[in-house]
Amino acid sequence: MDGLYDVIVVGAGPAGLSAAIYAARARFKVLVLEKEKLGGQITITSEIVNYPGIESIDGTTLTDKMRRQAESFGAEFKMARVTDIDVSGDIKVVKTDKGELNALGVVLALGANPRMIGFQGEETYKGRGVAYCATCDGEFFTGMDVFVIGGGFAAAEEAVFLTKYAKKVTIIVREDDFTCAESVADKAREHEKIEVHYHTEIMQAAGDTLLRKARFRDSKTGEEWQYEAPDGGTFGIFVFAGYVPDTEWIKGKISLNHDGYIITDPDQMTDIPGVYGAGDVCVKNLRQVVTAVSDGAVAATSLEKYVADLREKLGIERKEEPEKAEQKAHAAVSESEDGEEFITPEMKAQLKELFGKFERKVIVKALLDKSPLAAQMEGFLKELSDISDQVECLVSWESEDTSPTETIPAICVLREDGKESGLRFYAIPGGHEFNSFVIGLYNVAGPGQVLSPEEAQRIRDIKKPVDIKVMMSLSCTMCPTTVMSAGRIAAENEMVHAWTYDLALYPELKERYQIMSVPCMIINQERVEFGKKSIEDLLNILETI
Fold this sequence. Notes:
Elements: E1 4-10, H1 14-25, E2 30-34, H2 59-72, E3 76-79, E4 82-86, E5 92-96, E6 99-108, E7 112-114, E8 130-131, H3 134-137, E9 145-149, H4 153-162, E10 168-172, H5 182-189, E11 194-197, E12 200-207, E13 211-218, E14 224-228, E15 236-239, E16 243-245, E17 275-277, H6 289-314, H7 325-331, H8 345-355, E18 362-368, H9 372-385, E19 391-397, E20 410-414, E21 420-426, H10 433-445, H11 453-460, E22 466-472, H12 479-492, E23 496-502, H13 507-513, E24 520-523, E25 527-530, H14 535-542
Parallel strand pairs: 1-2, 1-6, 2-3, 6-17, 8-15, 9-10, 9-15, 10-11, 18-19, 21-23, 22-23
Antiparallel strand pairs: 4-5, 5-6, 7-16, 12-13, 13-14, 18-20, 20-21, 22-24, 24-25
Helix pairs in contact: 1-2, 1-6, 4-5, 7-8, 7-10, 10-12
């Protein structure tokens, strides 16, 4: 059967990446599907200190190493959202927004999403003071008071992380004590900038356009107390109250417990032969990176005999397929942190191969002034310019042909004929956004990220001008999804502009739109949307305008 995979792994967090490493190393044909960003929830963790053999590492670096290891063994990666799965036959059919895929075995490493508590005002002030990612949004609360809601690992660890920015951190613990390891809790308890309130719950967040005050209740005494930001200012509420398993779409397909977690046997197999679970989505006592990678390894090795026996039963021979260009694009992620170069030799080799597959030339033009940012942009383009003839780099200075109405400095992505593609970057595409920039070039030059027929038609149906400003942070792991979604739509429809801003460089935009969380989109100068947005999410928004 053409296009048949031995193993499809759904989810690219530590569990899914571990399964991919083990399955691909066993010389199986492996595809990893991820709907948002490779690495999963652990990428928002700034410091991991309990992974055996590694004294300290951040989540993004760890999972990037895992992904590269899986690729080195031949695993393929594809950005696609799984919408359904047919497990009724020997061949499992995985249905995605990019089409249907077939596999002999499936590993469901679906992970979980941050849990909303449901206190009054939580939804209203999300992005305006209520946040869920310290790495992404901590900097916005520099010099302010911050409340952390929760008493587990994440709450204790992220509270300590937030002391780098906040004037004071107050942890609100519903129980009588922390529910994490004493060593982790002690770091929070003993920190000079942290205060802890036990058996306490948040009741309400309130304010005007920004968060101004919050109300709390002592569950033992019944006493209520209120915090109000001084001098008419604002403050932060970071919620770390656990996660909800991402299993709504597989209800009725495999057995779940009453909380929605996947039930597996000791080999990580579900009640359906050939379908395995791994990671935080499974019923388990400890949800940590070390147990996630263990689950992935067990699931993959258990699948080895199952897949081999099934191939023999069905008389299916293996066939090799070439690597996908989109996989190469996602592999070209910046690793340079020393400031001496933007694009490392390893990255240049990957980009040269990717650019060689472009269907058309793409032009990257920098509109520059005499600012330090412009000088950095010029240096970035110099490094980019000598990689491939398929990417032409140009520089236009303020005194040349830059329009007086244009905001500069900026990096503009132009089509082969010199016309604007709709993509601009008011930033140096570094950190997590280097990948977004490369994908943007790929989308303009073609063939671009795969769109479903329905998505392509919905993009064509946009008939009115749409201006999207994506506000991001280079440290944010959730921003690239939104940047790439906006850029993909702009590359397909000339009515849409997608301009990406590093919010650290444009504080006036933060003040104007009262942004306290990223990613944030400003649509047509008026509508403000917070949070990660897939192409489908963004199209749903644009169709209401």
